Every structure is written in C-alpha cells, then in structure tokens.
C-alpha cells in the first residue's frame, strides 16, 4: 500500500496543522480539525498541473498573457429560466458547478429536471447517483412527468469508475449526486471525509477542463448552513450555488456564492409544485401580496438582488415592553444594522426609543435582505409604528443611512423606480443624490428626495 502524508485540516476554513488540536486557531471553530491523508507529491504528478490541470505537461510553460488564447465561452440553456439566470446565462462547457442546500430543498429535483431538458435538446447527459438507487431516481422522474428516454444513469461512488464510463459513453453534462458519497481509490479514508471530498473534486475538475465535460455536483450542508467538506472545495470548483427555502417553506431561493463565468450574488426564485421546481418570473408580485387594509408600521422596499430589483414589504412593530431590557428582534434583516439605525434615529432624529420599547422588524415573504438600501424603509416603518402614522399604500422607499444621519445614495436607483412604477407605485422617498430631473415626468411618480433624517421627518409631516 502506498504511503500517505498525514495532515490535519480544518473543515471550516481549510487551515492545516501538523497535529490534531481541538480548536482551530485560524477561524476559532471547535472540533472541526480532521485527519487528512494526502498522497506523496511523487505519487501524484497530476498535482503539478494545478486543480484545473492541462491536457499535457508540455503545455504548462511560462508565456506572456497576450500569447494565451482566451476562452471561447459557449453556454447551453437548461430551459429553466431562473436556473439560467443564476448561472449567468446557462451552463459553460468544461465548468464544475456545486449545488448545496438543506435536505428536501430540491437539489436532486432541479438537476433531474435540468438533465431532462438537456436530453430533449439531444445533448448527451449522465446522472451518476451515489445516494439513491436508479429505481428511486426513475420513480422521481415519473412523478415529475419528465421525459427520460435519453438520460443515462449510473449507480457508482468510485470516481475512477465514473470517469471510465464517461470515457466510454461521451456525455457532455454529468450530474454527481453527491460529492460526499464519492471516493478515489488512492486515498485510504472513508467517503465524505476531508481528503476524499477534496481529491474527488480535484479529479472531476481536472477531467472537466481536459475534456470539456460539464459537471453538476450536489453537496451537503452543515447544521449552520455552510457547505460541508473542506473549504478548499469552494476554491476548486467554478460555480457555487445554494438552494434554500423561505421561512414559510413556500418558495425556494437559489443564490450564487461564486461564479467564474458570471455575476455573483445572483438570485433565482422557484415554487415547489407537483411537477418539480417551477421558476417564478415576477417574484415582486408574490411578495407584494398585502392585506387590503393599510396599517402603520408597513412600507415597501425596492431591494436589489443580483441583476434585478425586488419589491418586498417591510413591517415594524414598537410596543411597550416589560422591564428595563428592551428586545430588538429581526426576521430577514441584519440585527446589527437595526441597532445602528436605532442609535442614529435617537441621536439625529430626536426620537427616544430607550428602555421599555420593544422593537420587531420583519421582511414579509421569508426572504433575507442583505442590500443596505433597506435602511431607510426600516427606519420609516419604525417611525410609522412608533407614532402610529399610516403610510400611503402606493409609497415605497430605499436608501442607506450613515452614522451622521445622512441618507446615502444606492446603486441602480432609476431601475428600482422603473420597476416600482410597473407595479403601480406613485410615491417614493429616495436619497437626494439618486434623484433625476426626469424621474417624475418619465415615471408619473411623486418623488420625495431626502438628504438626512430631518428631511425624512418633514416628509412624514407632509403625507
């Protein structure tokens, strides 16, 4: 048996150590350092080619950048509009895509739908399953009413065996379900371990680059929603996608965390139906399903997700609490930004929210907002609830709040307003720097430009 070099690697951050220890000094995590048995460098010469490899060693030479031929990127549509959006326009030949998510989120479902659509385009596909039997996969395809005539399926967990079958049948798209069940023969450890996951991903990536085969890999997540396995897994692959459910489990949200062939932080919306994950082409219409009676503490925010605007309702509730330790709770919004907004509001707005006022903020629809443009809507909803001011139903807002009380501009202001106008909104409170002379004429929308919190309070008096 070949000897291996023994290392100890943190499964969260990828830091390596010469011996085991309980705490990772790099990221601070506990009990994440696992034994890693790597082959000696002399026994694994393909490593000299890097993760993405080359067809031959002779091609690994020093040259100037202008001598290097650029990639002729061609994309293949999956025929699933939201999936194509997240990928950046479709699948790129020779790319490796990692899709992670909670159990039951729909990872295997969306990939089975994908290969079915690709097979109908006469593109050779192979579904390699290590978690389920071929019979289970076939049963799911029948439940989803998918055409499966041209889909090749392989039940295997050995990477060498899978690559041998790819050489024989020449598919262009291959699904690996999942990377945690795969192993390579020259590593003496169980599947799912740090060493097996890393070496399996390297073998698949090198093959993809050398033969132009696209791999769609299913990955598990840990209890804290991060991708299971070594951190180096994210560096090896080309695109990393997460599939999650909204808080009410009605919808599925697909996000990109990394994409070498497109924009990162792109987002796609799906609804789980009897026939699989169905793309939601107009998600704003879903999240704008508001009650007929308008109440205080509610306003619409135009956030920016990936390459498009998204309209969501933000609600706030301020109530008199019990005791001297007020609660500050958020759902779908960063709790630390709420604390900052409250501090700015008390300092520069003169509104006293100390001591016995409990404050709750909720983003309706179960999505999580990371865009700082939600600062101004959150502030407005809190003031609306605290002073019992009912904001107009056709009003929206967006803007970032600075520590000095200024309302800072955000990107894509015009596109946000245009999308809001399509949904019937007639009034908008926006940063003064985002105002354009033709906004009101072009959009038939009344614009309230504000430069600081004092301007915001004046606008609320006018409404």
Question: What can you see in these coordinates?
Answer:
- The protein has 463 residues and is α/β, with parallel strands linked by helices.
- The protein folds into three domains: 1-42; 75-280, 3-Layer(aba) Sandwich (Rossmann fold); 286-462, 2-Layer Sandwich (Ribosomal Protein S5, domain 2), CATH 3.30.230.10.
- It has helices at residues 81-87, 107-120, 134-143, 159-169, 194-211, 232-236, 283-287, 335-348, 375-386, 413-422, 439-443, 453-462; strands spanning 4-10, 16-17, 33-39, 75-76, 91-92, 96-101, 125-129, 151-155, 173-177, 214-219, 239-245, 251-259, 267-273, 276-279, 298-305, 308-320, 328-331, 357-363, 395-397, 400-401, 407-408, 427-431, 446-450.
- The strands form five sheets. The chain has a nine-stranded mixed β-sheet with strand order 8-7-9-10-6-11-12-13-14. Strands 17-18-16-15-19-22-23 form a seven-stranded mixed β-sheet.
- The mean pLDDT is 87.
Strand content: 25-35%
Task: Please bin the fraction of helical residues.
Answer: 25-40%
Instruction: Please name the CATH topology of the largest domain.
Output: Rossmann fold
Termini separation (Å)?
Answer: 79 Å
Largest sheet: 9 strands, mixed
Keywords:
alpha/beta, 12 helices, Ribosomal Protein S5, domain 2, seven-stranded mixed sheet, 463 residues, 3 domains, 26% helix, Rossmann fold
Give a quick rundown of the structure.
26% of the residues lie in helices and 27% in strands. With 463 residues, the chain is α/β, with parallel strands linked by helices. The chain folds into 3 domains: 1-42; 75-280, 3-Layer(aba) Sandwich (Rossmann fold), CATH 3.40.50.300; 286-462, Ribosomal Protein S5, domain 2.
